[in-house]
Amino acid sequence: MLLSGGLDSYTAAAMARAEGYRLFALTVRYGQRHAREIEAARAVAAWLGVARHVELAVDLSVFGGSSLTTGAPVPKDRPLDVAGIPSTYVPARNTVFLALALAWAETLSAEDIFIGVNALDYSGYPDCRPEFIAAFERLATLATATGVHGGAFRVHAPLLTLTKADIIRKGLSLGLDYGLTHSCYDPGPQGHPCGRCDSCRIRAAGFAQVGIADPVMRR
Q1: pLDDT in tens, 16-54
Q2: Nearest 5°: phi and psi at 107?
Q3: Closest Cα partner for 125 from 199, 21, 36?
Q4: Do the strands 52-57 and 24-29 form a parallel or antiparallel pair, or are they unpaired?
Q5: Which end is more exposed in the chain, N or C (fewer Cβ atoms within 10 Å of the end residue's Cβ)?
């Protein structure tokens, strides 16, 4: 399970656990400037009772190309319905993450990989689309000894077609504590969410549609 410490990956992991999967969680420290999400990932992993939680450093900030890995300003208050890919897109991030998860899964003899991507309430990232998930699933079987020996990997993206409100409702039905999570792209010095970046606003809209307060904003 790719576990970022955000609302989506927490919910996807809990859904997998509810289906009877034993969870091995992978959190990637990719050079993101908002390290607060790593702390959230540890809290979420503990809550989920994962079998093992690995934090792996793969510093994508060396390449740059994103306002999440450089000093470039994170967009605030931009219209969320505008077409285009925002500067918060980290080039090939989910491809890299899934490749790392695939490598660990093969050593575990596990054939199920979970990722919390969403293709509805998101910022327009190309690596959150159904076509990408399907393509990587084909690649995973083609590129591994598991596939050569007749096995096959399945990439589960249980949130892919859910709205943010639906994701929150699902999580609440599973008893999740969303106060443990972190979603902000540009938190303040104390780790508090800015409330104005794309991720904060999408999250806020989801909680508003559900009709409850976001526990993170009550801190």
Answers
A1: 999 999 999 999 999 998 789 999 999 999 999 999 999
A2: -70, -25
A3: 199
A4: parallel
A5: C
Residue range 141-157, pLDDT digits in tens = 999 999 999 999 999 99
The residue type found at 157 is A
Q: What integer pLDDT is reported at residue 55 of this predicted model? A: 98
Question: Cα–Cα–Cα angle for 141, 123, 77, nearest 5°?
Answer: 165
The answer to whether 47 and 177 are in contact (CB under 8 A) is yes
In whole angstroms, what is the distance from residue 184 CA to residue 36 CA?
9
Task: Please tell me the predicted confidence (pLDDT) of residue 219.
Answer: 55
User: What is the pLDDT, as a whole number, of residue 218?
Assistant: 62
Say how many C-beta atoms besides its own lie within 10 A of residue 189's C-beta. 5
Cα 198 to Cα 205: distance, rounded to the nearest angstrom: 11
- Nearest CA-CA partner of 163 in 1, 30, 2, 7: 7
- Backbone region of residue 92 per phi and psi (left: phi > 0; alpha: psi in -120 to 50; beta: other values): left
Among 159, 156, 154, which Cα is nearest to 140's?
A: 154
Count of alpha carbons within 13 Å of 33, Cβ hemisphere only? 19
CATH number at 7-210: 3.40.50.620
Q: How far apart are CA 76 and CA 165, in angstroms?
A: 21
Which amino acid makes up residue 92? Answer: A
The residue type found at 82 is V
Confidence (pLDDT) at 122: 67
